[in-house]
Amino acid sequence: MLLTLIVSVVILLTRTIAAMAASATNPQQGAVTLAPVNGGTISASATIIDLGISLTVSGSAVGLNPLQTYYSLFYDTGSVPTGPKACLPTNNSLSFAQMLVGPWATPAGGGRSVLSSVRTGPLYAPLSALGTMSVRLDTQPLSPPPTAPNPQRFVLQACGKIVPTVSPY
To answer: Where do runs of H (alpha helix) occur along 104-146?
Structure first.
């Protein structure tokens, strides 16, 4: 019985390590173009690279006010990029920690803003679980980040559908 358990654990670990190695050698890539919503002026684009154990997000945006704080969030595959339900979670498949991509850095004089984030461990969600991405204005920038989505605090400014792209790797 103990030998069967040990063999089962070894097989499971071997398959897990093999799957992780395959993902790391064959990264998945996605891209998103975020369009302004509600008559806004913010637009952005981002590239997402999934190594199977980490997600790297790099983006640039225009139209962000350097005196305000903006965050990006991911949403599940049921989320839509336009309309009254744009960039809203639909099935609770992502934790808020997985949804929160990070803050945008905006130069003091304005201009192009940048987003750079690496998501690992409990912050990681596979690219295949992501449907849309948003840029949201934080209306309470001096408060600690919330633990759940809060549309009143994070006001939607731009939204876009994440699409798979061919990986250059």
So the answer is: none
In a domain, 9, yes or no: no
- Where is 44: in which H helix or E strand? strand 43-50
What is residue 169's predicted lDDT score, i.e. its pLDDT? 53
Q: What is the CATH number of the domain that holds 75?
A: 2.60.40.200
Question: Number of structural domains, the chain?
Answer: 1
| Strand-strand pairing, 69-76 and 100-103 | antiparallel
User: Both tokens of residue 8?
Assistant: 């089962």
Which 3 state secondary structure label does DSSP give 162? Answer: strand
Instruction: Using a cut of 0.85, tell me whether the model's pTM lies above it.
Output: no
Question: Quick check: is 3 in a domain?
Answer: no
Closest C-alpha to 70, from 57, 78, 61: 61
Q: Are 84 and 67 in contact (CB under 8 A)?
A: no
